[in-house]
Amino acid sequence: MNVISKIATNPVARGLSVLGDRWTILIMRDVFLGRHRFNEFRAHSGIMRGTLSNRLEFLISEGFLRKQQYQSKPPRYEYRLTEKGLSLYPWALMLWQWESEWAPTDKAIPTLLVHKGKYSHPLNPQCICRHCNKNLHFDDVERVKVSEGAEINNPVSLPDSWGGQRRTRAKVPQDVDVSLTHVVDIIGDRWTTLVLAGSFVGLTRYDDFLNNLGIATNILADRLKVLVEMGIFSRREYRVNPSRMEYRLTEKGKSLYPLTITLRQWVLDYMPPVAHPYKLLHTTCGHDLEVDIVCGVCRKKPQVDRVKFHLPQAVTS
Predict the structure, then answer these.
(1) CA–CA separation, 53 and 56 (whole Å)
(2) 48: closest CA among 29, 22, 68, 67?
(3) Is residue 316 part of a domain?
């Protein structure tokens, strides 16, 4: 079985088949920041009206948002988080944290997350193992094969939107909120995410990506180039004649792992189980990998109503 089939049953791929879309992520960003109305979404994301309507309908149908009327004549609606939508908050915090650490200067988030309480303090979200409470690091996780039969049971089809040309490097309109757009440039394009997922399961060489992931050569070359330009991969020649390249995760690339595993945990906790031939083992403690997001200061799980975003009036390009 090739890697793409294994990734198709992977919890991360299942989560991204629902949430791995640029506009979907930016709409959820806006809702978590307290924006609830159609025109607010348009103003802050720069999304086209038809695309916005489509994504809002999708998020409602998937149970992440609910539509609530706030004006009768003419009818006007707000979009509010459901319990399922709120369950994505740990992932949203990890997206925010990664962006704060790694976004280039022109997209950096000039703000703090504040964990409110008797003694309020800055919130630095941390992904930890549920069993040993140690912070999660890419190099501390091992893939362990658990079943031959699981490889062919209940595969999740990769959606049509995994193909096509890259859409995430278009110029951002002026006066829109650019927070999270750096990380969205990576996970908001499913071919890029597929290449990244391949690197997480050990692929490093161009031919390995090509043969295992079923990507057209021009698309693969573009995504590898983008990931190198963004500092996610380093590129090195391992053979001179003929020239052959390999692509390895940088520290910036490895730092995407905790937020990726946070999405995996959400899928395991909130979506129906699907057989997968591998499990993840946290080598630090020897347990199957399960994670939680906690405050780096008090080590408590942040709740939506206990976190304040010190966001300026405009975080724009």
Answers:
(1) 5
(2) 22
(3) no
Residue 59 is which amino acid? L
pLDDT of residue 108: 60
Please count the structural domains in the chain.
1
Query: Tokens at residue 316, please?
Result: 């724009």
Residue 161 structural domain: 3-309
Q: Which helix (H) or strand (E) holds 248?
A: strand 244-249
Regions of the chain with pLDDT less than 70: 1-9, 106-111, 147-174, 310-317
Q: What are phi and psi of 95, to 5 degrees?
A: -60, -45
Sign of CA dihedral 113, 117, 121, 124: negative
Q: What is the DSSP string of 106-122?
A: GG-----EEE-STT-EE
Residue 108 lies in a domain: yes
User: Which H or E element spans position 16?
Assistant: helix 11-19
Tell me the sheet residues that pair with 294.
126
Tell me phi and psi for residue 185, to 5 degrees. Answer: -60, -25
Of the candidates 209, 159, 179, the one whose C-alpha atom is nearest the C-alpha of residue 21 is: 159
Does 315 map to a domain?
no
Question: Does residue 244 sit within a domain?
Answer: yes
The answer to whether the bond into 242 is cis (omega within 30° of 0) is: yes
- The answer to whether the CB of 143 falls within 8 A of the CB of 12 is no
Peptide bond into 155 cis (omega under 30): no
Residue 199 backbone phi and psi in degrees, to 5 = -70, -35
Q: By CB neighbour count within 10 A (0-12 exposed, 13-18 middle, 19+ buried), where does 312 fall?
A: exposed
pLDDT in tens, 96-115: 999 988 988 766 665 678 89
DSSP string computed for 138-176: GGGEEEEE--SGGGGSSPPPPPGGGSS---TTSPPPTTS
Q: At CA 191, angle to CA 21 and CA 151, rounded to 5? A: 100
d(CA 54, CA 56): 6
Number of Cβ within 10 Å of residue 216's Cβ equals 11
Taking the C-alpha atoms of 266, 268, 269 and 271 in order, what is their torsion angle to the nearest 10 degrees?
A: 90
